[in-house]
Amino acid sequence: MTLPNQALTGRRVLLVEDDYFIGVDLKSWFEEGGAQVLGPVPSVTEALALIASTDEIDAAVLDINLQDELVYPVADALHARGVPFLFATGYDPAAVPAPHRAVALCQKPIDPQIVARTLFG
Hints:
By secondary structure, this protein is an alpha/beta fold. The chain has helices at 20-32, 44-53, 72-81, 112-120; strands spanning 12-16, 36-41, 59-62, 65-66, 69-70, 85-89, 104-107. Strand 4 (65-66) and strand 5 form a beta hairpin. The chain is 35% helix and 23% strand. The mean pLDDT is 92. The protein is built from four helices and seven strands; from the N terminus they run βαβαβββαββα. The two termini are 14 Å apart.
């Protein structure tokens, strides 16, 4: 990891990812950097429940397609709370609907350092 640990230490990061291996890899990477990971959760319903029950979320990583369910309601909920997030997806950026096109997008396969740098600088 080349991102300074201070950038992740104590941060609460929500992971919304339906691919078990990607979710576990990202969780491990963030935790090794000192972040507290919320999830990973594989569905919109679980993500919205976690957001509703969690007071503090510093950032989120959202897979766009969760087993044929689109993550945009989660993006809307995070946006309403002012939580920064990005999309981690195999989708072409042009496929993202207009209301969400300004959101940063990391193409899969995901480089966790790029994800962390995009979220925390």
